[in-house]
Description:
The structure holds two protein chains of two kinds. In chain A, 43% of the residues lie in helices and 11% in strands. Chain A has seven helices and four strands; from the N terminus they run H-H-H-H-E-H-H-E-E-E-H. Chain A has helices at residues 4-14, 26-35, 43-52, 57-66, 86-90, 93-104, 146-154, and strands at residues 78-83, 117-122, 134-136, 139-141. A four-stranded mixed β-sheet of chain A has the order 2-1-3-4, with helices on one face. In chain A, strand 3 and strand 4 form a beta hairpin. Helix content of chain B is 28%, strand content 19%. In chain B, the strands form eight sheets. Chain B has a seven-stranded mixed β-sheet. In chain B, strand 3 and strand 4 (60-61) form a beta hairpin. Chain B is globular. Chain B starts with a strand and ends in a 10-residue tail after the last strand.
Amino acid sequence: MISDNAKKQINSWIEKYPQGKQSSAVMEALKVVQAENNNQLNHDLIQAVADYLDMPGIAAAEVATFYENYNHKPVGKHIIRFCHNISCMLTGADDLISHLEAKLGVKTGEVTEDGLISVKKVECLGACVGAPMFQIGDQYYENLTTDKVDEIVDGLK
Amino acid sequence: MIVEIEIDGKLINANTGEMVIAVTDREGISVPRFCYHKKLSISASCRMCLVDVEGAPKPQPACSTPVAEGMKIHTQNEKAIASQKAVMEFLLINHPLDCPICDQGGECELQDVAIEYGSDVSRFSEGKRIVAPSDIGPLIQTDMTRCIHCTRCVRFGSEIAGIMEMGATGRGEELKIEPFLAEGITSELSGNMIDVCPVGALTSKPFRYELRSWQMSSVESIARHDLVGSNLYAQTYKGNVKRVVSGDNDAVNETWISDRDRFSYEGLTHENRLLSPQIKVEGQWKEVEWDVALDFAIKGLNNNILNSRNLAKLGGLASNTATIEELHLMQKLLREIGCENIDHRLNVKDLNNTIHLKSTIKLIELETIDQALVIGANLRLEQPMINHRLRKAQLSGANITTLNVKDFNFNYKVDSHITSPNEIANTLAGVLKALIDKTKQELPEYLSEVMPSEQSVAMANNLLEANNSVLILGEHLINNAQASSISNLTAEIAKLTNSSTLNLTATANSLGAQLVNFMPNSKGMNTNEMLDADMRAFILLDVYPEYDFHHSATALNALSSDDMFVISLNSFGSELISQYSDVMLPMAAMFETSGTHMNINGKAQSFRASVGAPGEAKPAWKILKVLADLLELPGFHYENSAQVMSEVAHQSTQTHEYDTSIDLSKQTAMLETIWMHSPYQSDVLLRHAKSLSASQIGHMNTASMNASTAQALSLNNKDTYLGVPVEIDSIMADQCVFVNSNQATNTGGLQ
């Protein structure tokens, strides 16, 4: 279930923790196997990671479902991770999310038909000073307006 | 160290490091709580126990605030009450408040606390969340919309049951308590989650929609399915046990009970219960009055045995689940009329070759051992409460070594040595020799040819280094070809290493049976001798031959022979019993009779009847008393079972002589079969408890063997062995089959 390459990467994370504390590597391990599976996790993969790290499946599932970094449904090439916590909400994130949904013709959690973009509501990304904001890949986009959202989304290839 | 603190103006001494809530609980000061449980780790997630600590800017959770010298705590001032009320309001936001249709209603911690701290009107006008129910098995009903996320069940699973099956997935409003695996909850202790759940999220499935808690009476009782004797409450309504919940007794079961003890009561109302006395006249069964049936029994005894003074041809056999009182009266009756053929050891292949080790360690002391050697036991499923104690020891650093035929699933780390049944005695002899070598003592003759293996030397070293070690012999050894030698070797090893011993082969109330000498003396025959002798009559106390005897086919043959007169006292009827019996006397089952059970520590625990017996059934001690009266025997003037017990208490116990020799040259069989009833089939009440049978453990029915054994037997995993489906297990000892079956033993021809 877990490729040799993925195991190698996971092992390098396990080594960073004291012996017997291999389950501390669960977040990175989930990331590694997700990256190899079209950026998506499933029940069997979570169990495989848990088995590899000698921890209960449910404990790995708790981590995998708590953090927004893990996807449990198909996602697009680009994931727009839209913050909807308090600062962004107060500065109009909800309207912007509706705008984005209408523009792309998808709801949050869905993928555009061409498989290019998916939208995800996420918890605070720690950029309240630039609210409302979203993240695509490693890039933060702040002080968003409808125009700015259009421009960014149109530029995605 | 003792510190002095002040709670609500009262000066109180407390131990450093103790949490405030432990002190308030001890002092009887009420602090509301949901997530805190005295036997679980502290999560401090519900915030219900907020109290005001002078000097602290914010209210502090009593469950996770350690006491300190001079601390002043207010549990009832304005700040504390306001905080508690605020938390209550948040907890109720998503709670459905469906108390009228909730099984927890009336015994709900949320309901109780809400009455005190909740507001009459909710300020929350938004939609509440709904959580789809998940089916987690036949024992626990889930209604997770009611869950308040205290995580007691999650912590119970990971900390006590030792397998984390429930977890908190998702986040924020999406947070859900659920199992990850499709099988749901499989732990042998799972029912305790029902007890720890403070709301109606996890309730008893068999009890669903039955009754309100206040409609039932709670009767203290003792579980009799294993050798622990867990304390519990039978909750009854109109003469029926409707539910069983755990009782507290730190020396026995702490506050937990196994699922086996919790759900066995369902069997009480099974249609197979024997409800009226019946006699067989010219091959036809007739339901009759008690006096007719008893006269018939006496007449049969007179005709077959007493008139001809042919007492050597009479045998008395009893199940080891019987109470001390029942066993005492039955042996007294038999010995009064001159019969010495008495035994409760039905499942032993060779009664001259037995495990007879003394148990020298208290259950509570098992938690503090630092080294254990477990031989021939699947502890988790066979003795859940003992396993739980050992697990605690392991978690605090003890080293547990196992010698088993199979790599059983322990819920803690064990050093597992897969060992064939016929290698166990040699392995132990190796340990003993290594010990003798080390301590430079004289080598006994029987060890002269033993070459200790590396493994044996390591075990010997471990035991010598340990301060507090225990040797545990399990049920798989009962019919080992070298049982007696194993028992004696273990005793020798214990002597040299100062280890305690625990003998788990004395199942159910076996120690009670030994106490009242429900065994043949030198003049009498044991079970197997009786089955082989040409007997004329038997009195059987709750015996089910197809399950209880090791030699079940022989037993059924013996009982069915033409001129045999069989008096059967049974709680359940069966076709087989009707075939061989001449009179069937319906007896009260567990929960229906008063009596006493003796546990592995020799602790005699008496209980009263939780409910009356159904139909015409009577407590067996009464039936035996009346039989004795009709036989005009002296000394049976009892008015209640307590008088029987006090007679037992004043009697001196007979000690039995056991063979203490060790003979390693004894030939062992090429193939050893270890036959264990699956954990939920080990006695007649359990076999009739339908929810347990429907559970995953209840379904266990496999004959495990490794590939080479299977090849030698020309079997594959589609075949059956002695009628039980074959399972090929790669991690198993050679030359043996381990059967865990829910089938009768007579079908396959077990030798």
